[in-house]
Amino acid sequence: MNSVKSIKYVCKYITKGNDQAAFILKNDKDIDEIEIYESGRYISSSEAVWKILGFPIHERYPAVIHLAVHLENGQRVYFTAHNIHNKVVKPPETTLSAFFNLCKIDEFARTLLYVEVPSYYVWQQSKKFTRRRRGEKIDQWPGIKIDSALGRVYTIHPNNVECYHLRLLLHHVRGPTSFSYLKTVSNVEYPTFKSACMAMGLLEDDKQWQYTIEEAILSSSSFKLRELFSVILVFCHPSDPRSLWEKYKDSFSEDIQFQHERQLQDSALSTKDKAYNQCLILIEDTVQTLGGQRLMDYGLPQPERFETNLQNREYMRETNFDLEDLKKKVHNAEVSLTGEQSSVYQKVLNSLESGSGQMFFLDSPGRTGKTFLLNLLLSKVRSNKGIALATASSGIAATLLEGGKTAHSAFRLPLNLNYSENPTCNIKKQSNLAKVLRDCKLIIWDESTMAHKAGFEALNATLKDLRNSEEVTGGVTVLLAGDFRQTLPVVPRGTRANEVNACIKSSYLWPKVQKLRLSKNMRVHLHGDASAELFSNLLLKIGDGLYPECAGKIIIPHALATVVTELPDLIAKIYPDVADIKNKPIEWLCERAILSPENDTAAEVNSILLKSFSGEDIYYKSFDTTTNRDDAVQYPEEFLNTLDPPGFPPHLHHLKVGTPVMLLRNLCPPKLCNGTRLQVIRLNKYVIEATIMTGCARGDCNKTVPHASEGVQLLHETFPGRVVSCFKG
User: Fold this and answer.
1) Does the pLDDT value for residue 729 go beyond 50?
2) Neighbour-count burial of 611, counting CB atoms closer than 10 A to its CB (0-12 exposed, 13-18 middle, 19+ buried)
3) d(C-alpha 276, C-alpha 254), whole Å
4) Residue 463: which pLDDT band, with cuts at 50, 70 and 90?
5) SS3 of residue 132 by DSSP
6) How many CA atoms lie less than 13 Å away from 322 in the CB half-sphere?
């Protein structure tokens, strides 16, 4: 048993003796219920003593006070022959009506939500709330005491529309004095509780996407507006995308119309139609890149494509590079290679030139120049008009590679590899991606030590099938990179043996892999940083299991660590003068981090830092609903709001200008991946504007805006504020 009932079972029935069953045939008139109870109830000696001594059998803590909810003049009334007149003239007081009356006369009550009242007030038999006499005192409010009692509002089915939305308002409006007060938002009284909820932004509605686009129009280019509209289509599921397109299509295509008008080739009407068509083509390309479908599947007009735009977009993405620029990068980078890097570089190039299609694994601890070498190999292949695919097991690692993607996105791997017996990549032979893989020369997979072995085996089988080859990986040169001292594949509820079995070293492909290694720390090599060398050697010894332990703990030398005993001291040491964070350079933020093994500790650190930032506090709320409408009674919205599953933002998202945030979706790889760090530069009601802090997109001068605090050009992104929302079923 795994429910609350199990507690009652253990505590109450542990003293219960053997059961007894007795029956007798009697006339209905002769039934004695007391006698039946006494003969059928068996009490053990221990339970009898417990009852004789008057000890409690069970108890409930804390006290839960049920709070009524009803529409105006909708109290539940019990009529008798003697009270019908009085009940009609004066309906009975309920906890809700008493709450309204309390807020009219009590200043402190006007700061509370309906569910918070029982913690500070007692519901009397006189049908009114009075202040508690017991409990802890509230410093700011003399005479007010708080106790452990909890308030719970009766649940309402969503089919009872007005009462359901009244209940929703009671969980968000503090100190209401009447039903009319609840309906009033920004000094406007709405006719229904549902419309009041809509005005407060408590309900999901397409109007929020209209407000989002209108806010973005004030500060974003047409290119950014198209990207924003694509994100809304794929991830936000608007109910009427066609109306959004019709209303804002001129803003989406403004730059295209301007280009066409400068050419003066056609009439104004024809120019507009062509601009709309080209705009739809660009939106559809972005939508499909994000993993969406064709525009007609969203109810939008299907664009007419001509020969110039019927090409394989996947193929163009991997071949559309500036060859001259790549050759310059390769020439400058090859001169900078160390001996170790040059050896790895030549071995991979030899495999490419000979067409032998070898598999390599590059063992490379941190700071050994792995990313530099991988990007050089990508540039080398692409500068020779070849296709080189850059992938990584995590989104944040993919942002460091030029043109990088997550492996699941690049190869269409199954989402749950732990339970797939013979996994295969979801790639059709006639698809655009299949052509890319057939012509591919090099595949780089960074952080491969974190990936499940089934992913590599699925890729191997798919490449063999697509390229009609029995060679390993179909004859493609594959370079895996990573460090086995770091995190291995995660197996939910798995043992150490399960994790080892999921590792690539347990795959049948591992004996065919040629092992390469980088060991020279580039920070030490280039800057002569002695402390970095000591710390690097320490990490390597810990990873190899060679560093001595003391009572199960690893003692770091004082020369490499500063001892702090309190969390505020640690925060002050890592983030000095953090109040002025919005004017700090991005490098200052990128070189600082506090790691925690527990999410609760990380949340506490974030809360302390956010409070120390200067600026206005802005809050964004999520829409939390059940997938089944009938489940809303068992799982009310206020309960869903308390859930905080890993990988999701909290229900109440607290932000300030300058706050560093992390993206939780692959919006536009490799520029915007799951794990990309950004810094907030503007917070509007519906739109969040942020600057990319890390990855290959940082410092990109295309489609950029100046960042005032740095005086340099940085990539600027706009997101719908509701993307921070999460859906919980």
Assistant:
1) no
2) exposed
3) 9
4) very high
5) coil
6) 6
- CA angle (38 as vertex; 34, 44 as ends), nearest 5: 155
Tokens of 141: 């409010």
**pTM of the entire predicted model:** 0.74
pLDDT of residue 416: 82
Which tokens go with 344?
Answer: 């790895």
Q: Which two tokens stand for residue 496?
A: 């150490």
Tokens coding 536: 């690097």
Q: Is 367 left (phi over 0), alpha (psi -120 to 50) or beta?
A: left
DSSP string over 501-534: HHSGGGSTTGGGEEEEE----HHHHHH--HHHHH
The percent of the chain in helix, strand and coil, each rounded to the nearest 5, is 45, 15, 40
The domains found in the chain, sorted by start residue, are: 5-52 (no CATH), 64-176 (no CATH), 207-296 (no CATH), 318-520 (3.40.50.300), 524-560 (no CATH), 567-724 (no CATH)
| Burial state string for 249-274 with b = 16 or more CB within 10 A and e = fewer than 16 | bebbbbebbeebeeeeeeeeeebbeb
Peptide bond into 585 cis (omega under 30): no
Q: How far out from the chain centre does Cα 319 lie?
A: 32
Question: Which residue did the predictor score with more confidence, 315 or 334?
Answer: 334
Chain-centre distance for alpha carbon 390? 24
